Amino acid sequence: MTTAAYQIDAPAKTTTLTHQYVAFGIMTAFFVVAPIFIYPVFLMQALCFALFACAFNLLIGYVGLLSFGHAMFLGTAGYISAHAAKVWGFPPELAILTGTAASALLGVLAGALAIRRQGIYFAMITLALAQMIYFFALQAPFTGGEDGIQAVPRGIMFGFLDLSNQMTLYWVVLAIFLFGFLLIYRIVHSPFGQVLKAIRENEQRATSLGYKTDHYKLIAFVLSAALSGLAGATKAIVFQLASLTDVHWTMSGEVVLMTLLGGLGTIFGPVAGAFIIIAMQNYLAQFGQWVTIIQGLIFVVCVLAFRRGVIGELGRYLKKPL
User: Fold this and answer.
1) Could you tell me the pTM of the whole model?
2) 220: which DSSP letter?
3) How many domains does the chain have?
4) Domain of residue 234, residue span
């Protein structure tokens, strides 16, 4: 019976993976040719937020944990990376790794507190912790207060990649995004990822099967924090700035919006959602404060018309999980 079930499920699994490989190839090809007809700075901004959204989706989409404070990881890594590059004189690769490590450490501390609760209580704890980090960033001497850390040097990566060249910088950002994306893809499709999905679906049953669910949730939380930090550290080097914007609670709201708009629990959904939101912010900037209202209306329409998100509905239409 087990063998028969395996024989039935294996082809379906292989087909699903094949479709996702094709989708990944199309996405990568788009990013390779995109600088020809799209402003590279916009693409780099979108790629940083796409990685941030994918990291957030790892937590909410595959573990079922809604964090209202994920901006603390994005912003903390940005500040540490910017400080390391400007004050300590670290090369960009080491500055990015330092920022990522700082967010991972913060993820251990925040996760150890937050995973003790579930549902709205978990969300409120993450929000409270994020607000603490925000006020720390506002008051700490090395963060620059409301001015932030400006004029962050991009430097030369690995001793030969001059990041002052815009196209070189773009390829580096793309490589970092693809690394983070593939790491998340591997996590989701590993035995560890299957346990995370089991916890999302029925934590009590996962516990009854002998899994220490709190340990799995903490590991997932730290991985999500570290990848969010990777996005924040890269963003600080790219835009030569670390500011309060990236650690403010509204940034946590934006990443929720990106994930839901693209497709919660999908591989490619957060990428699409991030590009849609960043595109609206850039191309609708002429409307000033009305951009927020327009985003809200579009979000309401998408929730009503595309309940699974843009990519989720596309996958449902094609009958191929994306």
Assistant:
1) 0.91
2) H
3) 1
4) 36-248
